[in-house]
Amino acid sequence: GCVWEWCDHGIRQRTAEGQEYFAYGGDFGDEPNDGNFVIDGLVSADRVPSPGLLEYKKTIEPVKVEMLDVAGGLVRIHNRYDFITLNHLACSWSLTKEGMLVQQGALHLPGMFDTRWAKRGHEVANAQFLVASAGPARPGALQSMPTLQCRVEETSLVIQGPAMEVRFNTIYGVISSWLYEGVQLIEEGPRLAFWRATTDNDRGFGDVAGEWKSFGLHWLKHRIDRVSWEVIEGGRAVKVEVSARVAPPIKSWGVSCIYEYTVYGTGDVILSVKGVPAKGGPKTLPRIGLELRIPKQFEYVTWYGRGPGESYADTRQANRVGVYTKSVDGLFTPYTFPQENGNRTEVKWTSVANSRGIGLLAIGMPEMNFSIHRYTVDQLEKARHTYELSDSGQLIWHLDYRQNGIGSPIQ
Predict the structure, then answer these.
(1) Which end of the chain is more exposed for a tag (fewer CB within 10 A), N or C?
(2) Domain 142-403: CATH architecture, name and number where available
């Protein structure tokens, strides 16, 4: 069969400073042109496989595995080839718990051999099944926790415990500083985020990006109505509640929300966010989640969820659940036309750390999406080529309850 389209139709160019990029329709003053819709292949112009190619491989794999009995370990293997058996393949299995190998084995099948299209050992198909799941982690027993000190300094609520200090800005309703052993963990946030850098398909068929912008989703502002706090659990925890409204200027709709933080003496912080949208808003949203600005030194990222590549609600089957580690740069997908990228789905937890191993651990309750970039959403939205992106000086960490698909908008 044939794939349309196989590769991006970009032309290698360099900026005046010598930075390489791929040009597309309109970059040469040509009229008419197709813009970046000639950049729609399964491999890039220099033949680097895209996440879409891996998803395509998973979709057409010639072997399907069906779970029949989890407790008994019984599966059914379907041969989807038209004319040949599975004698040329080998089959192995493994049982893992939070990424750690518990048990493994192999099924006896005739030996493998090289082919014209792949070397012996090339993975043809895979399957993964959930055997059992655990509930989300919670802080330990309150009786064993150290007590916290709480004080007000002008526009800040300061909460201190052993080796840690959390400052809430009572004007803007966010964490303005979070220190652990003198290391700054958060520079700003978290704040509700509904916007993302639009994708080719967002801007393409149906122009859902235009619809989102007509509702002002790219202009959202936060208005803080109230910040309150109380010391609870005998001084071993502090509860902070922020009431806010997230809405675009000159529009009548918005989201009334409440952030509820519980800071424990161990340094754990549990955050719950509830929002009620007003009538007259958009039918779909690009994302529902939180955005944090963290120091750029936290470039070592580990997560337990689908990986190692990017995945979204409608394109995730090629990535298996496991524990993975990458750098911030390794999580970035350099699409020729910059856009939303690098999301990971079905994430139980994710951590960021500096070279000393100090950082932040975020745990979903039960799951979440995450992405982390050197660029803001606004930078990704405005850029038309990768060379137009410049380091923001911070890391932008998104922890999302949901993110829209990238093939077509979904609820």
Answers:
(1) N
(2) Distorted Sandwich (2.70)
